[in-house]
Each structure stands twice: as C-alpha cells, then as structure tokens.
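Predict structure. Chain length: 267.
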Amino acid sequence: MRSVRQPFLDAMLTGAKAAGDVARRLQGKVPRERKRGPTDEAEALTAVDLAAQDLLLRLLARDLPQVAVDAEEDTDTLGLLPHREEPDRPLVVLDPLDGTAAYADGSARYGVMAGLIEGGHFQAAVLHFPAWALTVWTDGERVQREGALPPREADVLVTPWMPRPVRRALRQAGFEVQGSRCSAVDGVAPVLGVADASVCDGCADRRRAIALFVSHAAGYPVWLGKGLWRGQDPEGCRQAFGLVARDPVMLQSLRERVETTLNGAGR
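Prediction complete.
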C-alpha cells in the first residue's frame, strides 16, 4: 500500500491549526468536565476536546477515508472512519487537546497532536501549540516548525505522577526540575528548548509517543522501558518509565538515577 504520509501531513497541519484556533478562542469560556481515567490529568475533559476531535476526524474522513483511527475521545464522528486496525492499514493517532487540565486552568501549555503509524512504526507527526502560535511537524526524516520557540522552563520536566523520591534524586544531582501536565510539551522538550530532558513515569502510550517521535526524528535519544526507542508502536508494551534528553550522556545519567531510585523504592 502506498504511504499516506504526505496527505496525512497536509490534512493534519490544516486541522491542528484550525482545532487550535477553536481552543484558543474558547479557553476560559467552557466548563471543565470529567471522564474516567487513572489521574486527574487523564480525567480532564472539556467541550473543546470533543469539538477539536470532530474537526480533525471530518478532515480525515474527507482526505484519508482509508485510514484507521485511534482517537482520545469518544465522539460520534469516530463512525466516519469505521475501519479496524489492521497490519496493512495506516493508523492515525489523535489527541485533539493534550494537556486539558492545564488548558482548563488557563495555562498556555496545551497542544493538538496527530501521529501516523504505518508498518508498526510512526512515520509522521504534527504538534500545534495554539497559545504560542507554534507548529512543529516531521515526515520522519526532518523536523520543521512555524513560529517562535517558547521560553526555557527547567533542566528536566517530569510528569505529575512521578514519585517524589525520583524528583528529589534529580534535584540532588543538580538538575532544576519542574512538573509538566502536557505530554505535547514535555515529549518535545529538547526540540522546543523548554528543557534539556523530560521523564515520564509509567507506560508511554501512543499519544505521548506522537511528541516523542518528533524528538526522535530531530535526533534526540528516547528511552522507553528497557531500550532506545526507534518509533515503533508502543501499544501493549509494559514500560517502567520513558525519557528523552538532549544527548546520550544526559540520557544515561538520568536513566541511571531514575532506575536506582525506583529500584530502591521497591518498584
């Protein structure tokens, strides 16, 4: 089957910016709702999440009706693309509003994400950050962007559920550590320059992998579980933690500290 990489990029660059316009205009004007999830961040939901996904799915149904979709929200528009996941069928992964909890609290750290998986590996990804008027995307070979990069935040970003002993160990090692509530931001931390690295506790799922794939395509090392990640579909994988860093030396240093701390805590 011929790759749909370029049609995917064309559709999702347009769609992510349009969805981002909706999110930016409605921030602070819609109530926060809840859905089932393991954390407060995962439970966060707004009408903007649903509207943004509707927009993206309608574009896909028009331009790429042959693809399967793994989307974050449960919307009626999922029926526009009724295809099952199959080994030979391109799969589009969507997170229409990543960082919903932060978005609902008025933060600029939220994004629209779309990724393309073909042959069991990510092949392309689009990230749009509406509050920063910034878009970053890759065809798997090079990373491109439109807009100015945001300011630096810290040395290392960590997810909200990262165990406190790990945060403490990183600070004791001399790193400036800050929490991140948006995987679209922390997954591309070294690409954006907001931090030199980020650490995620638990499994890096397909949606977080969208941002990690941009970092991978930009040449930054990504570690998932027990090895370097090369863009393969992480669905079903069991991973203790994931991280991305500015270079292999920093990646190794962070990995050793995180592993030692987690093992000492009985993980």
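Summary: The first helix runs from residue 5 to 26.
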